[in-house]
Specification:
740 residues, 3 domains, 7-stranded mixed β-sheet
Length: 740
């Protein structure tokens, strides 16, 4: 047996682990006892979620659609076909007719080369990744206020230094179990835990104070806490005077959000709001943890700015255990954004519209670059249907499961001239592609991930990829050469990383593979080899804004619409409201999220027998009062319908959810809840959709109707296409000539 040290491929915690291999298969996973984040522990997914690597359903050769069937072809044939199609589309409609989606499951090196392929080889900024659908408001909101869209502190600080931990909109115990462990350790040390969430999740049960905030009402709660802090003189006047701008506007904005008025709006007791505000403001070190329960709203940026305002007015920033901690949901979602897999910024966060930044990358890449921000992932369906985007290349993304209003996205894919999918499996999106390319995945390649705390760590190849599967950096390098761009002379992922270090030295120059082989990761920025990395941002009140000061912004909220008189009271307020409210026809609210046993679209975890046994089917969390009204017992089927469609699953009757709310995960194609979510109402700053609230109707269902629904979903997602493609891979010799 052989042991290889690597990093977990699932959430953004970045747990270190040992991959035990035998006969080119991973047979066991052991936790790293010396790592400061996971300290010898792993969650369910970390321990058991490795079986997908050796699955017999893995793609092993390129697959080209011919006569509506997939046939295996050689890499030469696949890349020749693809380069010709892209060349024709670019000649006929320009480079912006092509879009590329990268992925948070790829390495930093692969995300860097993917965005470089889009910009330098194709000539477009139409590059994005899944952060658009999860933490785009973190980037927009924290950049707006702090100048840097990233977690300000490290995970171990929670258990070591934080006196108060405020979890807002994060199901930490299920989505980030090893971070939750640090929170529980902090409580054992005497720290206070405040949890604000619509659901009484596991962390709420551990809380010293649980604030059951209604869906979409984070802004009034945060404003009410600031109202109390300012009214009682608990704000840090000297810090605000020396290190921030805009406090007076925020103070005026929160005047109307007294705890009593917000209690009437939300049902949260006014005394609890006051208690939370005092605990947080008076703490020696307080940290806010948040996730998609804050970001996945049309006012996601406003929610994040409100969190930042709260930290700034109390001076809870720039010290051990004091800061703002967005918890990233995927293994390299932080790194994908940092390395430029977004339509508006180059690696390092430099705007594509900035002439000086553009000149830097044009010189480094030896190619002219566009100054036009590209199409964002949440806008792709409309861009395709409008004829603006004719070709889409996705590397590891599965938008047929992750995008809101999936039926609308499917309609767009039916109209596209060219869809290319690079993935481990014949996913729901790949089944609709014209060309599918087999990717090597976690456990099969070298590179780095950046976890949620900006810690860059090495992952290493433990086994060989199946068949002809290739790493994304190899695919885009060879495709670039066929398109006439020769600026990717790499022989290994380390070559790619060394270019990153040269191009963005202020962030990465000091982070070499040599150092990462001997240290448990380094937090950027790390500008030189003798630099220790930067575990805490904004130390001493230094912010990365043009003025060097943090920029407080007034955030206003009304469930329907903020009155015009309030808007006009401020020069540029951020406005929050709920885009789709319940009504007589749709009296419930559907909200979505993750569960502990599965990950994202289930592509990897649902191929683990242990994890599939733990959570074999979708469930809807349903309040007992609603169950009684509909005559539904625990384990019986309910049908959830929105204006976009319907899904059926068993009811888990539980007080975890309040009345008139139903919660479902997005891991299961059998009840694909993103078919039901709303794609039309986007955050005006970052274009994230409002995943967390969809007006819904709930009715009792039957096993027969549930089975019929599954059969319809099977047709919609074309499950038979995957089986036919697997048979073709095993029985047909790859063709060396690709047909049109």
């Amino acid at each position: 047996m052989t042991d290889v040290m690597s990093v977990c491929p699932y959430c953004g915690t970045g747990c270190s682990m040992k991959l035990v291999t035998k006969n080119n298969q991973i047979v066991e996973i052991d936790a790293d006892p010396d790592h400061p984040v996971n300290e010898g522990e792993l969650c369910l997914k970390g321990l058991y979620g490795f079986k997908h690597v050796s699955s017999s359903a893995r793609l092993t050769t390129p697959m080209l659609r011919r006569n509506d069937q997939f046939v295996p072809v050689t890499w030469n044939a696949a890349l020749d076909f693809l380069s010709k199609k892209l060349t024709d589309i670019r000649r006929e409609s320009g480079p912006d007719a092509i879009a590329v989606l990268s992925t948070a499951r790829s390495t930093n090196e692969e995300n860097y080369i993917t965005q470089k392929f889009a910009r330098a080889a194709l000539g477009t900024n139409n590059i994005d990744h899944c952060a658009r659908l999860c933490h785009a408001p973190t980037t927009s909101g924290l950049t707006m206020t702090f100048g840097t869209g990233a977690m300000t502190n490290t995970i171990p600080e929670l258990s070591q230094h934080s006196d108060v931990i405020f979890i807002c909109g994060s199901n930490t115990a299920e989505c980030h179990p090893l971070i939750a462990r640090h929170v529980i350790k902090a409580q054992a040390r005497g720290a206070k835990l405040i949890v604000a969430d619509p659901r009484e999740n596991e962390m709420a049960k551990h809380a010293d104070l649980f604030l059951r905030v209604p869906l979409g009402h984070d802004i009034p709660l945060l404003n009410a806490m600031m109202h109390v802090i300012i009214r009682e003189g608990l704000h840090k006047a000297e810090f605000l005077r020396e290190h921030t701008n805009g406090f007076d506007d925020v103070a005026r904005a929160v005047e109307d959000y007294s705890p009593e008025s917000v209690a009437q709006m939300t049902g949260i007791p006014a005394d609890d709001i006051v208690k939370a505000a005092r605990w947080y403001a008076n703490a020696g070190a307080a940290a806010v943890l948040y996730a998609m329960g804050v970001t996945q709203f049309t006012c996601g940026t406003g929610n994040v700015v409100s969190v930042a305002n709260l930290a700034l007015i109390t001076g809870q920033i720039g010290r051990p255990g004091a800061g703002v901690c967005p918890l990233r949901g995927q293994s390299n979602v932080q790194g994908a954004g940092d390395l430029g897999a977004v339509p508006n910024t180059f690696p390092g966060g430099y705007p594509v519209s900035d002439a000086e930044a553009r000149a830097r990358f044009e010189k480094a890449w030896n190619a002219p670059l566009s100054d036009r921000p590209g199409v964002r992932a949440s806008e792709l369906a409309h861009a395709i249907l409008d004829g603006k985007v004719r070709a889409l290349i996705t590397d590891g993304e599965n938008p047929m499961m992750t995008d809101p209003n999936t039926g609308h996205f499917a309609h767009a894919l039916d109209k596209i001239d060219l869809l290319v999918v690079t993935d481990l499996f014949m996913t729901e999106t790949a089944r609709r592609a014209h060309l599918v390319l087999p990717a090597s995945g976690w456990g099969e390649k070298d590179g780095t991930f950046t976890n949620t705390e900006r810690r860059i760590q090495r992952l290493r190849a433990a086994v060989k990829p199946p068949g002809e599967a290739k790493a994304a950096w190899w695919i885009f390098k060879n495709l670039s050469e066929r398109l006439g761009y020769h600026g990717m002379e790499y022989g290994s992922p380390e070559d790619v990383w060394n270019e990153v270090r040269e191009v963005v030295p202020e962030h990465y120059a000091g982070i070499s593979y040599r150092r990462l082989d001997t240290e448990p990761g380094l937090c950027w920025p790390c500008p030189s080899e003798d630099h220790p990395g930067t575990p805490i941002l904004h130390v001493g009140g230094h912010f990365h804004t043009p003025t060097g000061k943090a920029e407080l912004k007034p955030v206003l909220f009304h469930p329907v619409s903020v009155p015009e008189s309030q808007r006009k009271a401020f020069e540029a307020p951020i406005i929050g409201h709920i885009a789709e409210r319940p009504d007589e026809d749709y009296p419930f609210m559907l909200t979505t999220g993750r569960i502990v046993a599965h990950y994202h679209t289930g592509t990897m975890t649902r191929r683990s027998p242990v994890l599939e046994q733990i959570a074999p089917e979708p469930l809807y969390e349903f309040n007992p009062d609603d169950a009684k009204a509909l005559g539904v017992r625990d384990g019986e089927y309910i049908k959830v319908t929105t204006r976009r469609g319907s899904a059926i699953a068993k009811a888990w009757v539980t007080e975890r959810v309040p009345p008139k709310v139903v919660f479902g995960s997005f891991h299961y194609w059998e009840a694909a809840n993103n078919e039901l979510t709303n794609a039309e109402n986007l955050d005006p700053y970052c274009a994230i959709p409002e995943f967390k609230i969809s007006a819904a109707r709930v009715s009792k269902s039957t096993p027969g109707e549930a089975q019929a629904s599954v059969e319809e979903k099977r047709k919609f997602y074309r499950q038979e296409v995957e089986l036919a493609a697997i048979r073709a891979m095993h029985t047909q010799k790859p063709a060396d000539v690709a047909a049109e």
